[in-house]
Amino acid sequence: MVAATLADVQAAPIMIDPHSSITDVEGIKVGHWTSTARPTGCTVVLAPPEGAVGGVDVRGSAPGTRETDLLNPENLVDRVNAISLAGGSAFGLDAATGVVRYLDEHGIGYDVRIAKVPIVPSAILFDLAVGDPKIRPDAAAGYAACNAATSERPAEGNVGAGAGATVGKLFGFDRAMKCGIGTASVTLDGLVVGAIVAVNAIGDVIDPSTGKVVAGARSADGKKKIGAVQTVLGGEVPAVLTPGTATTIGVVATNAVLTKAQAQKIAQMAQDGVARAISPSHTMFDGDAIFTMATGSAKKTGNPTLLGLMAAEVVVASILRAAWAAHSLPNLPAARDLH
User: Fold this and answer.
1) Quick check: pTM over 0.90?
2) Average pLDDT, rounded, for the chain
3) Phi, psi of 253, rounded to the nearest 5 degrees
């Protein structure tokens, strides 16, 4: 079967099913671990046992990541076995250790003859301002997320890496809103592209179709959304913020056959979805990271430009889902509760 052309896309506009998810990509499983002690958690995206070709694009000036250099196309290993997304700031990178242990116990990893070494790139977001900062995802949490992983549609909102996620912090945390984690997918000509995104931005979540703020910075009395960019352009000076207090992280998966360089390109284009749905994005305070996983289960090569277009769209949909699926916390209203 021939891959879709640009004309095919223009003739058949992408419609995103609200019940779709990243697990619509055959072989992909997702598991959450959510703390019962405070709003934080981690999310693991498991590749099929043979792995998936990986890519990554990291933007903003405050990233917290592990094994992203490995995904550079010029480097040796081209397949990943899982991606770990976690809250807890840099402490949350420990969750990936539990994912490695789980995969090792199941004999999954890069074969170096004397052992199979699990390849688990990961990224974290800053949620230490919500509840006790001493409580954060650890190796046991990552292991538990793996045990919970299924091919069913994953839960959204205040779960996993999105449990402590917030947005709209440009004017201080006391004027922020609750956000979370969301997922979506789209299918075109037999190729599926799905995403899952934990949204914890300094900026506002924007619906690109209307330009309206879905969740973001609130007025001083906390009763309405103000639109951070419009407010800054109107002359209000933002609060002095600590770098590294935000970050949006996610995974894009596809069943297409891709090279490592193509996977990286799709991750780059997927960041366009972040820029369209979060304003401002990729700031000094965000370490936005999007990973790519290409399983190849469709047995055909997709056009990377079209797949990148699809990736950006499902990232937008996932970000909007993350906002609408979130539930309020004390002093942190969610989109569903503040119109």
Assistant:
1) yes
2) 93
3) -120, 150
CA 286 – CA 247 distance, rounded (Å): 4
Side-chain-side CA neighbours of residue 216 (13 Å): 25
For residue 56, give the H/E element and its range: strand 52-58
Looking at domain 6-325, its CATH architecture is 4-Layer Sandwich (3.60)
Q: Cβ distance 295 to 253 under 8 Å? A: yes
- Please state the domain extents for the chain: 6-325
State the chain's maximal CA–CA distance in angstroms.
Answer: 63
Question: Using one digit for the tens of pLDDT, what is the confidence trace for 108-125?
Answer: 999 999 999 999 999 999
Tokens 């820029």 correspond to 275
Helix (H, G, I), strand (E, B) or coil at 289: strand
b (16+ CB within 10 A) / e for 130-153:
bbeeebbbbbebbbbbbebbeeee
